[in-house]
Structures are given as structure tokens and as C-alpha cells.
Amino acid sequence: MTAPETGATPVAPGTRHPHAETPHAEPDTEALRARVLATLTTARERTTLLTSCVEDPDLTAQHSPLMSPLVWDLAHIGNQEELWLLRTVGGRDAMRPEIDGLYDAFEHPRAERPKLPLLPPAEARAYAAEVRGRALDLIGAAEFRGTRLTEAGFAFGMIAQHEQQHDETMLITHQLREGPQALTAPDPEPVAPYTGPGEVLVPGGPFTMGTSTEPWALDNERPAHPVEVAPFWLDTVPVTNGAYQEFIADGGYDTERWWTPDGWAHVRQHGLFAPQFWWREGGQWLRRRFGATEVVPADEPVLHVSWYEADAYARWAGRRLPTEAEWEKAARHDPATGRSRRYPWGDADPGPEHANLGQRHLRPAPAGSYPAGESPLGVRQLIGDVWEWTASDFLPYPGFGAFPYKEYSEVFYGPRYKVLRGGAFAVDAVACRGTFRNWDHPVRRQIFSGFRTARSENV
After folding, report:
1. Which of 80, 182, 240, 296 has the fewest CB atoms within 10 Å, measured from its CB?
2. Predicted model pTM
3. Domain match, 160 and 227 both
4. 292: domain range?
């Protein structure tokens, strides 16, 4: 069953709609092979970093009941690559069929995984490496056509995205683990304080949401469909730590009227008073970031807030969270041409000048960074830095079809999950697009989540 996107109005059937998405030219076979190899290599290098920077006891420990042991993620990455590339695409026999159940994410909740007979670190590394070696042989002979899975290298792109998503999950585990700092990275370039307009007007009218042409887009991003959005105002940059501290200082966590009933109950039950990993000491806010303690930087986008906290801040500010359709229109719609771009800056793949992606840094860049990545309307940092909560429930687009398996998206649809958009510094470019959809429970805040606010045109 399909349903229209929350907060958006589909254009009536039969209505002529000129606002198509930008076509994406297919690369030739050798260029595609090079892209597949590069994206899989980048993902594996990151996986290796995240699993080699700590000793084996940290790999096998569960650092939070919300997360798997790092060694589970490592073997799961290899198992999924074997299932989809070697067995499904390559028609190979199973290498280790007896471990499939151990690494089935739906068979064992995260809290139970430390009790399973998991592969020890050395064996998990050897298994993932052997799978990758066989996959490279397969890629060398691939023609990237013939079936929906192999067309344009979809299965290979899916596996690269899957590994990068687990790399992001492992980075969250590193943030949650106690102990000394294990990861380092250079900070983003400093920028002058942002002094531009605080909000921009996104014009009303139709635009094309989702995609039918992006070759590695996942099922929940499809199909492209016209959506009518009323005019609205959107924050030019994400809400910053400094702005969020004003909400705290004004009694935001102690004032029931800013919160939904469920949000208020959650705040009271868990004693929330600030974003996760923050505490007050010596008259200033401090935070723990990957094992290091530092003063909370006022100019960075706020991080590690739940949907409930983002929604409460927006109410306190006299605003609201944008709907998913509003967010995507602000990120992709080009008013000059009426077309939907792949990214805010155009159709080119992200570069370091456009966005903070790929764990290049271990923190968001200051608000107002990356002017080369702004949208045609001047909205900045829509891609990278922090995932942005939206007001919308995670629902299928009209015409949705599960592919290649229902458990990727379909089983999660419904009001239990809220949509996040835009990616974060922990997200690789292969798993981040203007159409990419993330989702999570509204209580979650260990994720690299922030937000920006909106208001209707006449409010």
C-alpha cells in the first residue's frame, strides 16, 4: 500500500508537469567498473580504520545496548557482500552458510548479539577479506547489465552503500565507547562568522520529488513524482549550539508546552537537560567527542539531539520542523529551470568544497561553511555536517516497489519513525544524495542528528 508523502500534496493525475528531475547520464562500462572499485575500496579502508584503531576487547565488547559489538558489524559487512555479490549476482556457492543466521540483522536484536557465537576479530577480518577478494574477481568480469540487480552496477553500489552505512554505525559506537581517544582527524577549515540572512523564502509550486534516474538510488527514494509545496521560509543554516543553549537557558527542558506529550514524558522519564554528551561545568557547557573533552563550540550545528528535542526547540522559537517534501524542494529545486538537481549545487558528485562528508572530519563544520555547496536559493549545508530531522513520518512514495528485499525499507514504514535528510560528517558521498532518506525513532540521539527550522510564508 502506498501513501502520499506527509506534508505534501501530489499533483493531480493527468496534470502536465514540466518540473522533471535532471537526467543522469550512464557511464560506460570501464568508467562504471572504476567507480565500483573506488567506492568499495573507500568503504573497506574506512572499515579497516574503524576496526583497527582499538584492541580486540573493544571490538568484542558491547559499548551500548543500542549498538552491536564492532566485530559483529565487521563480519556482517562481509556476509552481506557474500550474499548479494557472490551468491546472488555471481551464482557462487555459500562460503560459510552456518553463519548466515548470526549476521541476519532481523534475526537477532542488537542487545542480544554479544551473546552469540560470533567470529572472533581475526577470523572476522579474514572472512571479510576473502569475500572481498572473490568480489574483486567478479567485478573484473562484470558487464553491469542483464538484470535489474546488475544494471548500472546497482548491486555493487548497494553493497558499497551498505558498508558505508555500517561504518557510520561503527563511528557512532566509537562515540559511545568509554576510554581514551582512538580516532583523530583534522578539524574543518575555520570560517568567518556567518552574517547572511537567517532564512530564505522557498517559493511555492510543484517540484519533482524522489528519483527514477539515479542508478544507485535505493527503493525508498523511488519513484520520482510531482509534489505541490506551499511557499515557506527555511533557516539558511542549521540550528547552532549557541542558539540551542538559549533554548536551554530559557528553561526549554522544564517547560511542558514546548513538547509533544510523548516528548515531554520521555524528557521527564530520562531526565534530559541538554543534547547527549553535554554537561555543565564551571559556568560553561562541555561535551565528550570521541573520547576527548572540549568546550561546546557555539558556531557549530547542534548535534546528538532527538526529534523530540528538535521539535521542542522549533516550537520555542515560534517555528516548526520542515516537512520532508519542503526539505527536498529546498535542496534540489532550481527555480530558474524548474528542474530537480541531484544536489543543492547541481548534478556534480560532492567534492570537499561542497560538503563535510566521508569522515574527513570528526565534527560538523561551523554554520555558514561551504558556500560552493549552497542551493540556488542560498541555503547552506543541506548536505553533510549533521542529519536533519524533518516533521515527516517515514512513508512510501506513490508507486513504491520494494527492491531487492522488503526489509530494506518496507517493514519500517509508518508513524514509528521520523525522516532525517542530508547526511552528516559521518556519511560517505556514495550514501548521500538530495533524494537519500534516513529514518529513526524520535527518541534517538546517539546518531549524528541536528536540524533546521521552517515557518509557513504568512506565519
Report:
1. 182
2. 0.94
3. no
4. 186-459
